[in-house]
Write a structure and sequence with these properties.
By secondary structure, the protein is mostly beta strands. Helices cover 0% and strands 52% of the residues. The protein starts with 7 loop residues before the first strand and ends with a strand.
């Protein structure tokens, strides 16, 4: 066969995008979509093999396909993995092996790997308290102080206010990096919150009168877009 017989191209991370956060010991399924960019068909004799890095409980190899993947066609490849027990970033690299035992990968040279990259950390652990009310652009905002008690970075948050009848009077409003550095700053912020740090969140009280009892619901997450691991808490407060 020619030098271009066995080649692969990465198409997409179907599951578990780079940086996805898992709990220690959590099981997950990683799926890649690959294209046969070479000149030879892939058959049941081809395998996906662990190349280097963090194995995360993976097998050393498993079949690439049970049928045939012709040049130009795509295939989804899945493996069940186990998040390590200690917090941190983990990466495992993978390649392919043909029926003759030759290892190949991605790119024009056929040497590049495809990988899974995760972060292991506990679900967000935080305390939240009502702090004060201050005006932003002439509108009063409720300000809350947030303490990161855990070992995960906070990157996004969602806030909802309900009145005493359960009716939503604000939100749900979600932002990436909505955390404020001080109690008199105004949304949208732009900060994240490291472990053992504190930050502030603010939400509009427009059309909400003084003296009203509200329940604030906070959803704090370890990735943008309310992704990764999230923890939801509620706090009752009265608008001053």
């Amino acid at each position: 066969p020619s030098a271009n017989c066995d080649r692969a191209a990465f198409i997409a991370d179907v599951t578990v995008p780079d940086g996805t956060v898992f709990e220690p010991g959590e099981t997950f399924v990683k799926t890649w979509r690959l294209q046969n960019s070479g000149e030879c068909a892939w058959n049941a004799g081809y395998a996906v093999i662990f190349d280097q890095g963090d194995a995360m409980g993976s097998p050393a190899s498993f079949p690439l396909t049970s049928g045939e993947v012709l040049p130009g066609e795509e295939v989804e490849v899945s493996v069940t993995l186990l998040a390590p027990s200690e917090p941190g970033e983990y990466r495992g690299d993978w390649k392919l092996r043909n029926a003759s035992g030759q290892v190949f990968g991605l790119g024009n040279s056929g040497n590049s790997s495809f990988w899974v990259l995760i972060n292991v950390g506990s679900a967000p652990d935080y305390s939240v308290f009502f702090d004060n009310v201050h005006a932003c652009d002439g509108v009063n905002h409720a300000v809350f102080i947030l303490f990161n008690n855990g070992d995960s970075l906070f990157q996004s948050a969602e806030i909802t206010f309900n009145d005493s009848n359960g009716v939503i009077v604000f939100g749900p409003l979600a932002h990436d990096g909505p955390f404020l550095g001080g109690p008199n700053e105004c949304p949208q912020g732009g900060d994240t919150v490291d472990p053992d740090e504190k930050a502030f969140l603010a939400a509009s009280l427009v059309n909400i009168p003084s003296g009203q009892n509200l329940r604030a619901t906070f959803k704090i997450c370890t990735q943008d877009g309310l992704g990764g691991s999230c923890t939801t808490k509620t706090l009752d407060f009265t608008v001053p």
